[in-house]
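Components:
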Amino acid sequence: MARVGVFVCFCGANIADFVDVPAVTEEAKKIKEVKYAIEYKYMCSDPGQQMIRDAIVQHRLTSVVVAACSPRMHEKTFRKALSDAGMNPYLLEVANIREHSSWVHQKDKKAATEKASDLIRMAVAKSIANEQLHEISVPVTKRALVIGGGIAGIQAALDIADARIPVVLVEKSPSIGGRMAQLDETFPTLDCSQCILTPKMVDVASHPFIELLPYSEVMELDGYVGNYKAKIKRKASYVNFDTCTGCGACWQKCPVKVPNEFNMGIDKRKAIYSPFPQAVPNKPVIDAEHCTMLLKGKCGICAKVCEKGSIDYTMQDEIVEREIGAVVVATGYDLWDPSPYEEYGVGRYKDIITSLEFERMVSANGPTGGVPVRPSDGKVPKRVVFIKCVGSRDEAKGIEYCSKICCMYTAKHAILLHHKVHDSHAYIFYMDIRAAGKGYEEFVKRAQVETGATYLRGRVSKIYKKGENLMVRGEDAQLGQVVEVEADLVVLATAIYPYKDNPDLARLLGISYDKYGYLSEAHPKLRPVETAKAGIYLAGCTQAPKDIPDTVAQASAAAAKVCGLFAGDTLKKDPMISTVNTEFCTGCQNCVTVCPYQAIVTEEIPLGHGSKEMRIVAKVNEGVCQGCGSCVAICRSMAIDLAGFTDMQIINEIVSI
Amino acid sequence: MEAEIKEKIVSMEKPHMEAPPDWQPVIMGILCNWCSYAGSDLTGTSRIQYPPNIRIIRVPCSSRVDPWFIIKSLQTIADGVLISGCHPGDCHYISGNYYARRRFLVTKKLLNFVGFHENRVQFSWVSAAEGAKFAKVVTKVTEDIRKLGPLHLYKKENS
Amino acid sequence: MDYTKQIQDIAGRLFSEGKIDIFIGYRNTGFDENQVPVLIHQYKDVDQLLFTDKSVFNLANYLKYEHTRNKRVGLIVKGCDSRALNLMLTESQVKRENLYIIGIACEGVVNETGEKAQNCVECMMPDAVVYDELLGSATGKREYQVNADIRELDEKTLTDRVEYFEEIFENCIRCNACRHSCPLCYCAKCCIDQETATLFHGANTTSSAFHALMTWSLHLAGRCVDCRNCEKACPIHLPLHLLHKLNEKVIYENFQENLAGMTEGDRGAFYKYSLSDPDDFIL
Amino acid sequence: MICKVDKIIQETPDICTYRLKFRDESLTEQFDWLPGQFIEFSLLGSGECTFCIASSATRKGTFDCSIKRAGIVTADIHRDIDEGDEVGIRGPYGNWFPLEDLKGKNLLFVGGGIGLAPLRSLIQYAIDNRNQYADCTILYGARTSADLCYKEEIEEWKTNKSLRVILTIDKPEDTWKEHVGVVPKILEEVVKPKVENTKVITCGPPIMIKYTLLALDRLGFAPKDVITTLEMKMQCGLGKCGRCNIGSTYVCKDGPVFTYEELKRLPDEF
Amino acid sequence: MKLTTYSTDQAGLQAFYEAIIRAHDTYGPVEKFGKFDFKKVNSLSECDPESPIPRTMSVKPLFFPKSAKVMKYTATSAGTELSDTAEDPLAGKRVILGVKHCDARGLQVLDAVYKWDYIDTDYEKRRENTILISPRCDQAATHCFCTSLDYDLETLDAVDVAVINGADRKIYLQARTEKGETFLKENATGLTSANGSAEAEMKKQYETFAASFRLKMNYQEINERMQGQFDSPTFEEVPSSCVSCNTCAFVCPTCHCFKISDEKIRDKGVRYKSYDSCNNVYFTLMAGGHNPRPVKYRRWRQRAMHKFVYYKERFGVNLCIGCGKCTTSCPVNISIFEVVTKVASSMQE
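Structure:
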């Protein structure tokens, strides 16, 4: 029974001055399905809404058309009026006769009136095909998974946990801390990285709402927003963390030496090791690839020296499952491998190091005790050349983007060098100095003034050996001439680059990534923290190069998103989502391909009634679908339809004028 | 003059069909909710005037537009169709307008191939901030179609 | 091109080894020179089989019917047929493990007048791309060429094209033979089949025919493999390939797409996008 | 012919009865039908559907069509038609129950779900011509009590001393006081009809018909004494469009009322 | 019965045709997309009445168009108004040239169903107002078997005027019906009367024609045998290569199944009656999902049985007329001749 009520709004003079409202109402009455039509001064006012409510009851209306302003303005208001009258709010259609007629055709009242009538006719036709829809509620598991225990992961975990939401923090290395733990001092304030980081690390370890899973990796993520299930591999550490006290006897006695990743391979660690002194948890793990006991069954010294008997060579990888509602991905960054710069002699000359190696050297807890040394002969370098944009902004050899932090940390390095080696001199080859940020420009100035560093604008074309030293030949673009600098040490500010396994992670999580491997945000401007998949958020350099403040800000933003998501017991969703008519579905899965949210999965249903043979059909996950309709338009068999914008509704609109 | 007439003949579907004197084109506008519809609202709030020939349908995303909406519109009342979505990269649904863009190009070329003038079906990217652009686009499309005259191809009997 | 013997041997072997339930091939009608598809269920019928340059029909079409579903099927595919089959595999319509595919490195089939068919002359990939066994020697991918009829029509004025196509749509009787004979039109409920077409309107009028054919060709855009089953099935002999070839040309020229069905997993141009797709037609 | 919808009665969640009367009242007199005949009912814009007339011509002025929401057109009918709306009808078409043959016989009506609709026409006819027929028994079943049609009228029938009304539903329900069980079972176990001088008129879903026929067979009914009405896709109702062909029989002209004996002679298609 | 006969030569025949086209609303076989189809013609050069068989479509669309308006209506809040469609474009007096005998026989067969019970007045009117001029076939096409079905050229009243090639390039025009006779007499300018003299020549022409048939069946036997073959397993085998494309029914001169569909735009609607085919899966699909013929072979069985058994049972004539159009048009060349002979012969085994 189609009984449509049409309510035409004067909007004071806004509509009435340019559209003949009574004529429009009369025209609406001529439509067969319209059983009631009336005009009023302000439909959105209380009396106006009361008219709608009364008419719904009195005239047993089955759908309501309000001809007024844009649906983007008052659709919610009128929907509420409908539900107050006991009618499904989605039986409302709004004909936009203000923004689309009276306001834009002010010179031609006749045409504006005609157009308003047509718009109403379209809305009536659409409303006849409207169906009762109900808000979708999806239950939520209030537990967050944070992948990565760097500063981004730590910050996100703490912020979420402080909101009394349980967090599972997964870190692949034995300790949390990440890249920030490797840094000495941080720009632009030169406060000690460890000093500000370690308290946070300890907070994580002791927080009642954080479950820390170090030395672990996420293997699988199933489900959808609010209802994910993660499988996490806890790699065998061969040390019983419950009993280990972290006394260090084992790693002192261990005979096997391995290049130390934490110090960028400058020094050695043992096969049983804790990555750095302030590690959290401060428990050692055995590196199974190098431990002779595990490799050959000989040795066993650590087990002997351990008073607690915490060493267990039989330990196996363990898979743990956690039900979670949201994920924050904070896997950080890797350094770009500068080997394409052959002209620099990367790999050939020992005294060319990366800035992170330099960072470790100048670090007080670093392998050289805070003094930079030349890898070739251990001498303290006096003339150090810093080359910026190694890889960054270089389409030919490297990558197109700017790594964002190199300008700043190179300035910092110049200062640190000056602090550690007072009679040193820094030469810095740069393309541009990008120092946008609070106190950044000042910091660069400070570096230039305080250290007297020579900033040379230009690209380095060649580095060659001259005696023990390196000759750096480059162009000084400001002078327009070639310069050569003799250097004891060359530091390359290599680009930030995503981890190689980022694409794997992205596939595992079902989110998208860009051509470099950075995980993609849902919208570059308006949704920089969300991914395309609902309930998965990004923090830190896994999304794009960032400095620490940006990373922390994004981590907190992600945490806020998680907290927002978990604010209610269920997630409320607009019911305007896709539905599959399995009878028509051919199972071609094109919809699965085009869905930007992976909201469509497949299921098997019997071929016919009671048939044993099965066929594949598509199934929309209500929790994930956002209602864009991409799948509907590509579905050839018309098996998918979009509630609220069904084919029938749109065609009704098209054929009604 | 002659060249003009010739131009007219080759660019028209049915040159011998004259438009009735009081004829006004009808244009079906299909706009995505997040950019173009918001943009058209802005046109309204800014009181920028445009020809009253367009009838607007709101869809969530330009990727919701199935080519047969266009065909159906052309077969019923419409003399032309305008479809508008978000600028590339701005899609509220990430990638919808990219899929739509491909479909639109093929649809447009195919319709042109079977005899619809290319100006009968037009597409635009209008963002929520481009109220003035929306008015410009509608004006252009309306004038284009007014020049082409009424559409006579494959119309439904009762349209 | 005559692989009659090899095909009989293979089919015979497959039946005797119990590897297949049905073999789909070609046979002579016994009335004239025409070959028709035949579905063979047992060993004793294999000597009916033959394959020459008159083996035109795209046999992949039979995989969409109920009587071959979930059966183990052996069939012969030429280059274009195999690409259709590839798409059917990608779109989960058939299971690869149920098929034994005899691929042909096709030298082109002939049309009614005995000349090499137009689609074979312009064929870009005559070799079967998916097969268990390949007959003939593969010649590889060829240059893309724009269909001759399309080129000719493109040069005509709009008014002329209107006249030309009006005739086509006017003469269409909407028997839907085109849709039924297309291997890629496997939908159980086709949107242009009149009975389900509440939204499409069912009458066999010119406007309905226009709507149906346009929708149909857009559903096949980026998927059509140019086997011309549709055109052969059309009782009115409408040049249906024009619609498909135009789509193919637009897609090939603008999106640099491979031809439909060249690799398994490739769904066709409408199911992916590139950031650098042409944008100049958009205001 | 244009009819106005006089009243819509929601029988069950998916069945509505539409009480129709002619817009042009002069047609009311001309329009005459016998129980078992059908009409073509069109909702302009959606299409046409075949429905049996569910009321008897002995009750003139209006006539009823009970429509179950099943396909595209019926869904549109349910959605779009409102009291006072106009619909198109053609008819009446088809044959009717062999009223003459039934005279003086005991009548046993076996109906299931919407299948009561064609029987209702005959039941009303029989009530209005009560003296022409002997015992009348009505066995009516549905899946649940909510799926029973014509509830009010059934209550009326129950109070009618000359009718025996037996109701059943498939599965027990708390408030249900009548029989429980599928129709064929109740037929054999509760109704236990006399075979002599009895004609059975049955209509219902195919599965019910199938088992009812078997049950009747066991009870000893001759096929010629079992009458049913067939549903078949029809479009013209005039014996032209060819849809309702079963063998050389046109259901729309030679049917829809057939005896079981006649059905047996048809090719085994339905 | 005496048949009015005229004789002429090729040029005379052309002149006769041209005169007809000038004076009457004339239809003829026009070449479209390489095949001949009946269209309205304004001059003889547009059409070729002698165009060979097989042609795409029969004359059926001129009597039973692929889509015909049944009625129009408007529905507003003021009420529903029905209106008859505009004048039937096919109802006027007209002449059709180049009708093959099988086409004409097809119409005769259709008459049975159209004149049964409810009479389709549109069809009847179109039939009444039409003169069929039929050049006799000289040579059977590959799939023709009309002679086997008793629909040979000797059947008298199928066409109104028969055009027969005689000896020495003589052409005879013979009126076969009263309507034809009146018409022929009215248009006999330039023709020579040849009443009674050409019988032998015509008979001879027919005999040569009949001898050119490759397909022959014993219809009586087949009809009898088919009656018991409803459950024949052959039905499941034979049409397995069918692609359910419906072409056969659409081109068949005697297939008459149709469907009714509505088109409604704004408040105006049109109801159409359009071709349909029993090979279509939806043909018997009922609301609610039950379908008595869900699989291909059942639909094929219905088609074959209807053509060769049911129609005969009901109306006394066989529905198939042996024109071979279905086989020619079939994309996989399934021959109904082959199917029915196989089914009929399977009983013996």
